[in-house]
Design goal:
The structure holds three protein chains of three kinds.
Chain A (H helix, E strand, L loop, with lengths): L1 H16 L1 H26 L4 E2 L2 E2 H18 L4 H10 L2 H5 L5 H30 L10 H26 L9 H14 L11 H8 L8 H7 L5 H35 L3
Antiparallel strand pairs in A: 1-2
Chain B lengths: L1 H23 L2 H25 L11 H21 L6 H6 L2 H7 L4 H7 L4 H20 L5 H32 L4 H10 L11 H10 L2 H12 L5 H27 L7
Helix pairs in contact in B: 2-3, 2-7, 3-7, 3-8, 3-11, 8-11, 8-12
Chain C lengths: L2 E16 L3 H10 L2 E16 L3 E5 L6 H8 L7 E6 L9 H4 L2 E5 L11 H12 L3 H14 L15 H13 L5 E5 L7 H18 L2 E5 L3 H7 L2 E6 L2 E7 H8 L2 E8 L5 H4 L4 E5 L3 E7 L3 H11 L2 E7 L3 H11 L1
Parallel strand pairs in C: 3-7, 3-8, 5-6, 6-7
Antiparallel strand pairs in C: 1-2, 1-4, 8-9, 10-12, 10-13, 11-12
Helix pairs in contact in C: 4-6
Classes of the chains: A mainly alpha, B mainly alpha, C alpha/beta.
Chain lengths: 264, 264, 325
């Protein structure tokens, strides 16, 4: 356990050290939130609600996107692709650590830094709109939000890892990964609430794990889901997590074996 | 002069064809990137259309006008991607030593760094955008030919402005051998150009017009077509573009003079 | 004879930011950047005549590559002058660039995923080589470098030796009059090294091209260069014939002695520097002036079975040159 804590703390320092990369990520994310925020603000104009979201709720949704992006969409897929295709992965495989645990520790460090920054940015925007935000008062809501968001963060980690593991077989796994991440941003509701989509499409998406990434936790936060419904959905989300852990680990093992068989 | 143009077009076509050949060896990867870009385009377009199922106007623009802004953003962005793609790999070009070869060969290193990495897939993604712009034109009322001329002219002007920004970023990479991030920050901030600049608050709008002139690149052409841009603003756009280009080439020259090549 | 290359007090400093470690150091560097100048090349002056093939020697980081990069126009010197084929290299005039080439053993200008011939055609466009001339030069290079069908195969599928020869061909399509070679044989096996060397020699003789080459491989230098320039920590240490270099620095000979009973190393120390001693054999470096006396003394004092006096290896001389200073 200590070695993973060690990895976490080193990665935390490194994330802070690499200022330009950090700043780039944050500025980029902030630009997206600022434009979505302004867009909804302009769209709502003097209307009181849109698609069942009050002005307050819609703007809160956009700010939640920023926090959830920081928490959920920071995986280590691209690093894994790089490490596999350059062969650096071998140096991990011979060491007495579990690569998954190690990568998760690094990712958590990244998430810590990004979430802190995301909250700061949201706070700045909140000041500008003079607190016209929806803040839940029930502690159960907060608990379930944290639970739902935490689960989605893990699902994303394993899902991304599974796709990145394609790098064991092809040097071109960057393409599918890029495609997956773009698709996911939309299907997860990281640009707009899925209520915008036509009914049929929305129903199809709800059978996939994607809406759990952003849309679901955000709706829990906005108390748009009844507590019993939320509990049920969190249960389903946990099942998805189990499915993806199993899938990712088995792909990983097959991949490592075929990698070792070819001699790297 | 004619000879120079002929020579540079030959080099451009040559590298373009080589780029395509190289890309064809990465079919899966290229396909993933192509699909990802298409998904992004279609999802956003679907989003804009879905929104207008529920509202009449956003910031005073109707569906077709909003679509025009969005598609103009895509057009400008893709043109930059096609012609100035090399900047996104500038760090690699410098650290792997390719830039050393650019400097000893009788061809402008700026040209080779910025313009001579062409991605044919981007040209493919440009087609649907052009078709959609045509469809938007058909749905808009007929404007005098000067409006269309101003649209095309300002698009060319935007590409000039984007060129300047790319040259500036390329120079930074040559000088510091890092900071390729600069251009990625720009890409992310460019996101704000997806919507008409009028949705933003006055201070953000001022920043997007004078500080980080994204509005000039994306909103100005569409506004000119809709007859909403005064001649003095057009003049501002041209002056900005020309002075930025001149300044960035000076910057580039100074960066090349300070080039340190990589170690060894 | 005309001068192909001339430098006067050529100097290059590299400026690098100095950063204190830790988070606070990083924050400080954000506002108050400190720089440190390192002198990579220090007032180097030499002249090379047209058609000469000169070896450029020095330890790692001595400034060889930096000098070559300035001579090819890649880097602008901090101070000093240089003329190459009548041009100031770092002005990067097209007329100059069409007459030179820089080959770096660790770098490649060939596109990785596609056949080398494609890069050749790109160079044809860049250097503006007419089609007929291009074909002629290409045939000649393919022939001399034994490239055969290798040019039709994606570069990533070539062996290192094949790739290096294709690299050479790409650099020479425009028939440069000045060729700067940085470690052209690095990583190649002995047979390939020999091929590359023979080619360099042939190119020099056929085209009367001026060639400057750096190499860690002494065989390259011995077989190709009559003249060598040695630099150490950016300073010019030696400029002259290879033979004289050997004479000047080989100030000792090596005794290889086999005794009929074990001898202690301490005893042998009086004759020179003991390099190597096993129980019955010893290797001693003896200053030139004392060779005769030392040999006589050893033969007189010890039970010697076999006795050899050898010249110092050139590789050794150069190594000594670098560790000396």
């Amino acid at each position: 356990m200590t070695k993973y804590l060690r990895a976490y703390s080193i990665s935390l320092q490194e994330t802070l050290q690499r200022r330009t990369t950090l700043m780039m990520d944050r500025v980029g994310g902030f630009a997206i939130v600022l434009s979505l925020f302004s867009f909804w603000n302009a769209l709502l104009g003097d209307k009181s609600s849109f698609l069942g979201y009050s002005r307050q709720e819609m703007l809160t949704y956009v700010l939640l996107i920023n926090v959830l992006r920081a928490l959920v969409f920071t995986g280590r897929g691209w690093q894994l692709v790089g490490e596999i295709s350059s062969g650096r992965i071998s140096s991990y495989l011979v060491r007495p650590i579990d690569y998954y645990g190690y990568a998760l520790a690094l990712d958590l460090a990244q998430k810590t830094v990004h979430v802190v920054f995301a909250f700061l940015e949201v706070a700045i925007l909140a000041v500008f709109i003079r607190g016209a935000l929806f803040i839940p008062t029930r502690w159960e809501t907060w608990l379930m939000f944290v639970l739902a968001a935490g689960l989605s963060s893990l699902i994303f980690f394993f899902m991304e890892f599974m796709i990145s593991s394609l790098a064991f077989w092809t040097s071109e796994s960057g393409g599918p990964l890029f495609c997956f991440e773009l698709f996911l941003s939309f299907a997860a509701g990281a640009f707009f609430p899925l209520d915008v989509l036509p009914e049929a499409l929305r129903r199809a998406l709800s059978a996939t794990p994607f809406p759990y990434m952003v849309y679901f936790p955000a709706r829990v936060f906005l108390e748009k889901v009844s507590p019993t419904e939320a509990a049920k959905l969190i249960a389903i989300e946990s099942c998805w997590l189990v499915v993806f852990i199993a899938a990712a680990l088995s792909v990983w093992h097959v991949g490592v074996n075929s990698y070792a068989a070819e001699g790297g | 002069m004619r000879g120079t143009i002929a020579k540079y077009s030959r080099i451009w076509l040559r590298t373009a064809s080589m780029g395509m050949q190289a890309q064809l060896t990465y079919r899966l990867g290229s396909f993933g990137f192509l699909l990802g870009k298409m998904i992004r385009l279609l999802f956003f377009f679907a989003f804009v259309i879905a929104i207008f199922n529920h509202v009449e106007a956003v910031a005073g623009y109707n569906l077709v006008e909003t679509a025009l802004f969005f598609l103009t953003y895509n057009l400008v962005d893709m043109l930059a991607q096609i012609f100035f793609r090399g900047v996104y790999g500038a760090r690699r070009t410098v650290t792997e030593g390719d830039f050393d070869f650019y400097l000893v060969q009788p061809c402008s290193p700026l040209f080779r760094m910025v313009c001579s990495t062409v991605d044919f897939l981007d040209i493919i993604t440009l087609l649907p955008v052009l078709v959609m712009i045509g469809m938007t034109f058909a749905r808009l009322p007929a404007y005098p030919w000067t409006a269309y001329a101003a649209y095309v002219f300002l698009i060319v002007n935007s590409v000039g402005l984007i060129f300047a920004i790319h040259v500036w970023a390329a120079g930074l990479t040559v000088r510091t051998q890092e900071l390729e991030n600069a251009i990625w920050i720009f890409r992310d901030v460019m996101f704000m150009g997806k919507f008409p600049v009028d949705i933003y608050s006055s201070s953000v709008r001022a920043a997007l017009t004078f500080l980080v002139p994204i509005a000039v690149m994306t909103s100005f052409p569409a506004k000119a077509l809709l007859g909403l841009l005064t001649p003095s603003w057009m003049a501002y756009a041209v002056v900005l573009s020309v002075s930025a280009t001149v300044a960035s080439t000076y910057w580039w020259r100074s960066c090349v003079a300070h080039y340190t090549s990589s170690s060894s | 004879m005309t001068i192909a290359l001339e430098t006067k007090g050529l100097t290059k400093d590299y400026r690098s930011p100095v950063k204190e470690p830790g988070l606070w150091g990083g924050v400080k560097a954000l506002f108050d950047r400190q720089f440190k100048d390192t002198r990579a090349v220090d007032a180097v002056s030499f002249k090379i005549e047209e058609g000469e093939l000169v070896g450029f020697l020095g330890a790692n980081g001595a400034g060889k590559t930096t000098t070559l990069k300035m001579l090819s126009g890649l880097l602008t010197p901090t101070s000093g002058e240089a003329t190459a084929l009548g041009h100031v290299p770092w002005k990067r005039e097209a007329a100059f660039q069409k007459k030179i080439s820089l080959v770096m053993g660790q770098r490649t200008q060939l596109w990785w995923e596609i056949p080398a011939l494609e890069t050749f055609k790109l160079n044809q466009a860049i250097y503006g080589i007419p089609e007929a001339e291009f074909k002629m030069h290409l045939t000649e290079l393919v022939d001399l470098l034994e490239l055969g069908d290798h040019l039709q195969v994606p570069v990533k599928k070539l062996s290192l030796g094949q790739r290096m020869r294709a690299e050479m061909a790409a650099a020479l399509l425009h028939r440069p009059k000045l060729l700067l070679l940085d470690e052209p044989t690095i990583g190649l096996d002995v047979v390939m090294q020999k091929k590359v060397r023979e080619f360099v020699k042939a190119y020099n003789v056929r085209n009367g091209a001026t060639i400057m080459l750096t190499s860690h491989n002494m065989t390259d230098v011995v077989e190709l260069c009559k003249r060598v320039i040695v630099i150490e920590r950016g300073r010019l240490l030696y400029d002259g014939s290879l033979d004289r270099l050997v004479e000047r620095y080989a100030d000792h000979k090596i005794f290889k002695v086999r005794f009929s009973k074990p001898i202690s190393a301490a005893d042998l120390g009086q004759f020179g520097t003991v390099v190597n001693v096993a129980d019955m054999t010893a290797e001693i470096e003896v200053p030139r002036a004392e060779v005769a006396a030392a040999a006589a003394a050893i033969l007189r004092t010890y039970p010697v079975k076999d006795f050899n006096i050898e010249d110092v290896d050139i590789d050794d001389i150069v190594r000594r040159l670098f560790t000396h200073s």
